[in-house]
Amino acid sequence: MDDDGLDRILTAPNVITLVRLLCIPLFLWLLFGAHRQTAAAVLLAVLGATDWVDGYVARRYGQVSTFGKVLDPTADRILVGTAVISIMVYGAVPLWFGLATITREVLVSAMVLLLASLGAARIDVLWVGKAGTFGLMFAYPTFLLGDGTATWQEPIRVIGWVTGLIGLGLAWWAAGSYIGPARRALREGRAARRSSV
Fold first, then answer.
1. Number of domain units in the chain
2. Residue 124 domain-assigned (yes or no)
3. I need a surface site. Which of 26, 135, 149, 181 has the fewest CB within 10 A?
């Protein structure tokens, strides 16, 4: 792959990712400031559903960058963490489910930082991890939208539980599946450092 342009920062996909990040305070204000539960749920759903857009634009138009490779997963972690904690505080999701989600995110993030500090090669995102994140990012706005006593909210809660449990299961499966690639990435990174000396 051609490495030209990998050091770029101001690219269309990076701008898309930054816009998604800037929408997080708006989500928090809608939920806790304006008390617009439905609007907050819809915004969160849009932010989750557009997770693939920046990556697609980067690959489609040749705007992949080193900064984007760091910014995109970081934005995903911030978005997931904010959504989970906010919806737990709001009371629309059980504490155990939220903690199971957060614990997985913290473990994966800590592993990424540890591997980077040890000089490991970059690990590509596994499809099962993306599927788990997608399931959770569908479930949390659904939990929020279904939180209430209206008749129409009951089937929405059921949908939230189905997608949430599947997403959480896939997310934890992905966390375990990263152990093998992490070991290989660490060996490759160390080998590359030794050969460059």
1. 1
2. yes
3. 149
